[in-house]
Amino acid sequence: QRVVLMDPSEDPDDILRANRSREKTFVFDMVFDHRATQEEVYVSTTKSLIGGVISGYNATVFAYGPTGAGKTYTMLGTDCEPGICIRALDDLFKTLEGTTEEMDYRVSMSYVEIYNEVIRDLLNPSSGFLDLREDPRGSIQIAGITEVSTTNAQEVMQLLMKGNKQRTQEPTAANETSSRSHAVLQVTVTQKSRRKAMGKEVRIGKLFMVDLAGSERAAQTQNRGKRMKEGAHINRSLLALGNCINALSEKKGSRAQFVNFRDSKLTRLLKDSLGGNSRTVMIAHISPASTSFEESRMTLIYAYRAKNIKTQV
Description:
Blueprint: E1 2-5, E2 24-27, H1 38-45, H2 47-54, E3 58-64, H3 71-75, H4 84-97, E4 103-115, E5 118-121, E6 129-130, E7 132-134, E8 140-142, E9 148-149, H5 153-165, E10 169-170, E11 178-179, E12 182-193, E13 202-211, H6 218-221, H7 225-249, H8 265-269, H9 271-275, E14 278-284, H10 293-306
Helix pairs in contact: 2-4, 4-5
């Protein structure tokens, strides 16, 4: 459960810095090394959330970290090593099939990307930029989004692969196919009881799976021009997410901390799943390379703060 971060530039013979080591230890719920399989990561992070979604709680899974550390691989995976999205949906459908005698259920999903603070529909890319609106009940909706109802995980896999090809990817100095946008997969499970007396009650659980864009610093990717602007937008939304996490995790002191969800589209869309009736998992990715020491340090600090959030359900 422990990550020890060593500073690659540290010189053991440097007398002046002898007692000022930059080595840091972080403790998390679970730490995986390079030998962990997709299955292991899924079972220890996300598997326990599926039952909650079916009983009407929201759940969110984030993949966070610098570019090239494997976020998209963890979330989507490859054909022979499917990632968290596919495994979670597979489990979801299996569990729901066990309850069909009592419940009618509908599973719908949408897949969007947030790029330069505008929202694009990955399942229907021609629809242009979409708006976020609030409906009368106060939940945030994306106007004009394509929602697909599916019944098996195979269809979903194809949709995700198709959607992922539409994502904005650009080569940077750090990664050939760097995702320059946040991809949000939203799965909504709506259930109605088949018994007459309880027919009025509807249970809705939402599962968000978010593949964030890379959190690296601009110097690492040698970005210029358009890439640089993109990076600024990415960092802006990640900073807004960080600010929300900070505000949520600070102890309720003399004054309740104001949580600014409206700073970016990403945090506004995830408002319910960060602070509300929700269980949230953040999977932080770091690279073992000594060149990305700074990135690894920032990522671990960010994830460590996220650990302190307590939500009131």
